[in-house]
Write a sequence for this structure.
């Protein structure tokens, strides 16, 4: 029995109970010495019956035959035509044709070859190597498992192994050199890549933070350290990985990024925002002018810090107060206006000036930026500040008023910590020129005559909407809903129904009294209108309940996806990423379900009008067949167009609805007509 040198205590105990025997290194002898085989590669002892070494898989018997040792069970030919007869040939070919061998391993070719050659151990090694994330590391691992002799091979060496850069100033640049050497033979091949710290540690000439390594002896690589934009006051680390056919090495880099000190007196030498705030608190009057010039903002940017003040910079001591508030070192005071609404009269064309105050009860400075939203309301003091109170001056210029003797204008004040305060100004203008009044009356008449545009746009929208419903509502959905309602009323299975359903066939459902059904009228229906084998009558409300239920179910099923599509398009147009696109789909799908159900209910209500016209013209004498269906479609389109015109006229009378509903519809229809080359209709529908 063959036993390795390293035995456990339990195994020793078992050996003591065996018959007497003599021991030799790596052998046991029972009355006689048992022959063993030494591996020619690792020199470890193996039992005589072994074919391959238990430790490294080398061929034990082949070595005894000279050239037969290390021979492959069958020749392997690379795509280039290179033939390999031994494991040494195979390993050398993999190193010489590294890229090809890497792809063959990844594709499972090596695993299949060694598996078919009877080397299950090497097939398993290839399978395990394929699990590696990096293809170069996988091939290196696999080559290490091959039972080869000492053959010439590349050997990787890196100089230096670490880059300890010490302290670097924010914004500083530095160029480094890395030497990749081949201490063995052959061609060293692989890649050099930055796996950590790629935002500041870069390889010159690399593509996507990766550079190929191909050298028989030595390759010099330039590395670049770029600290611009990195926040100062932190320690940064980077890692380079060199993966080659001669080994794998990691190179680490580290630096401490220190801030550039502030250079302007009296705050020269300051190195942190906190220290700057403390120095400004001690000298607020000197800090104000420096903040106004932008020196502090530029210092923040040069050190990679975000300047906390957004928008307009306040002046003087108020600027210091603003800096403290945005830094979170001071709680902003609650501010208010002395008057939020003003009303007065003026004589044309004399301007009128007035003032109001921005104030607080706290013993702090207030500041604000005043913005006007009316051309005739001018801001005389765009930036205001003061201790506990600041004065705002405004002017009304009557010459800029051209929409009537009574006008309303708005302004707003953006004060401490972004507090926004609105100002409303009402002005009565006396002596407005007759030309302006006449122009206003003309505009009023033009506005009154402008009712045609919203009416035309809404009529076109209703026409296109109903035309879109023709394909799936009038051709099959309505008939299917009538059939399902009939089945429920007759308590019959859809597969075993007897008799002839009257809703079968194109347009057959036109025989039903739809005005009563859709309006929820009382009374009953003749059951034979639904099925020729049904007797008696059916309550209208009961049939309506089943019909509406099935109709809305299928209507939502066919149209909800439009909301998901619209949500994805909106997110994509706003620059959203893949994650945002998914949530856009989810939100759009939810909105699509709600809007689809609402639209289905509105559609059934709107259908009362064309059905009433059909009943008045034909009654129930006509129904079924292609001709009657085409006549129905024409009546439905005309009725919905007239209904849209009526809705447009009604919405035009309500000013809020003009902005919320009419204007968007007009813009959509005008854009659609322009896309179709109908410029005239687009002009008539434009808002």
């Amino acid at each position: 029995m063959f036993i390795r040198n390293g035995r456990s205590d339990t195994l020793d105990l078992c050996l003591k109970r065996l018959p007497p025997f003599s021991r030799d290194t790596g052998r046991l002898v029972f009355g006689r010495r048992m022959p063993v085989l030494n591996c020619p590669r690792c020199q470890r002892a193996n039992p005589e019956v072994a074919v391959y070494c238990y430790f490294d898989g080398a061929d034990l018997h082949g070595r005894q035959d000279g050239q037969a040792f290390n021979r492959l069970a069958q020749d392997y030919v690379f795509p280039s035509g290179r033939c390999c007869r031994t494991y040494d040939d195979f390993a050398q070919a993999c190193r010489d044709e590294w890229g090809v061998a890497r792809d063959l391993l990844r594709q499972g070719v090596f695993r299949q070859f060694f598996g078919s050659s009877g080397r299950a151990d090497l097939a398993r090694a290839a399978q395990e190597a394929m699990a590696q994330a990096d293809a170069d590391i996988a091939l290196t691992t696999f080559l290490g498992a091959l039972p080869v002799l000492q053959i010439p091979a590349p050997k990787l060496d890196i100089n230096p192994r670490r880059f300890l850069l010490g302290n670097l100033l924010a914004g500083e640049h530095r160029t480094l050199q890395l030497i990749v050497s081949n201490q063995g033979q052959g061609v060293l091949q692989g890649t050099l890549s930055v796996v950590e710290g790629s935002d500041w540690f870069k390889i010159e000439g690399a593509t996507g933070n990766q550079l190929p390594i191909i050298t028989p002896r030595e390759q010099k690589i330039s590395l670049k350290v770029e600290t611009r934009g990195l926040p100062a006051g932190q320690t940064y680390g980077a890692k380079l990985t060199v993966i080659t056919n001669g080994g794998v090495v990691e190179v680490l880099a580290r630096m401490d990024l220190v801030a550039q000190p502030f250079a302007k007196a009296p705050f020269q030498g300051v190195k942190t925002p906190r220290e700057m705030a403390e120095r400004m608190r001690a000298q607020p009057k000197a800090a104000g002018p420096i903040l106004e010039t932008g020196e502090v903002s530029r210092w923040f940017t040069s050190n990679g810090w975000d300047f906390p003040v957004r928008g307009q910079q306040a002046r003087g001591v108020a600027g210091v107060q603003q800096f403290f508030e945005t830094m979170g070192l001071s709680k902003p005071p609650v501010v208010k206006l002395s008057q939020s609404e003003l009303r007065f009269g003026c004589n044309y064309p004399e301007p009128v000036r007035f003032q109001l105050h921005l104030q607080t009860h706290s013993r702090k400075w207030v500041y604000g930026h005043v913005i006007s939203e009316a051309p005739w309301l001018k801001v005389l003091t765009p930036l205001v500040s003061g201790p506990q109170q600041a004065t705002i001056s405004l002017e009304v210029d009557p010459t800029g008023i051209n929409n009537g003797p009574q006008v309303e204008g708005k302004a707003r004040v953006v004060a401490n910590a972004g507090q926004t305060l609105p100002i409303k100004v009402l002005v009565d203008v006396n002596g407005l020129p007759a030309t302006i009044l006449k122009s206003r009356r003309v505009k009023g008449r033009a506005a009154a005559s402008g009712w045609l545009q919203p009416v035309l746009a809404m009529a076109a929208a209703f026409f296109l909407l109903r035309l879109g419903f023709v394909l799936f509502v009038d051709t099959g959905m309505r008939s299917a809903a009538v059939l399902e309602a009939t089945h429920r009323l007759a308590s019959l299975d859809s597969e075993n129904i007897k008799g002839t359903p009257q809703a079968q066939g194109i347009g057959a459902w036109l025989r039903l009294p739809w005005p009563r059904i859709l309006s929820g009228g009382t009374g009953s229906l003749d059951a034979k209108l639904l099925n020729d084998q049904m007797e008696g009558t059916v309550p209208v409300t009961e049939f309506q309940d089943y019909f509406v239920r099935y109709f809305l179910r299928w209507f939502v099923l066919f149209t909800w996806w439009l909301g998901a599509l619209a949500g994805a398009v909106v997110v994509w147009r706003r620059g959203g990423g893949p994650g945002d696109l998914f949530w856009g789909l989810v939100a759009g799908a939810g909105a699509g379900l709600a809007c689809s159900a609402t639209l289905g209910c509105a559609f059934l209500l709107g259908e009362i009008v064309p059905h009433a016209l059909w009943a008045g013209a034909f009654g129930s004498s006509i129904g079924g067949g292609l001709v009657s269906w085409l006549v129905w479609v024409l009546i439905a389109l005309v009725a919905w167009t007239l209904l849209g015109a009526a809705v447009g006229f009604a919405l035009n009378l309500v000013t809020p609805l003009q902005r919320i509903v009419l204007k968007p519809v007009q813009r959509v229809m005008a854009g659609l007509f322009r896309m179709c080359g109908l410029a005239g209709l687009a002009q008539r529908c434009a808002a």
In short: The chain has 20 helices and 26 strands. The longest strand covers residues 247-258. The chain has a mean pLDDT of 80.
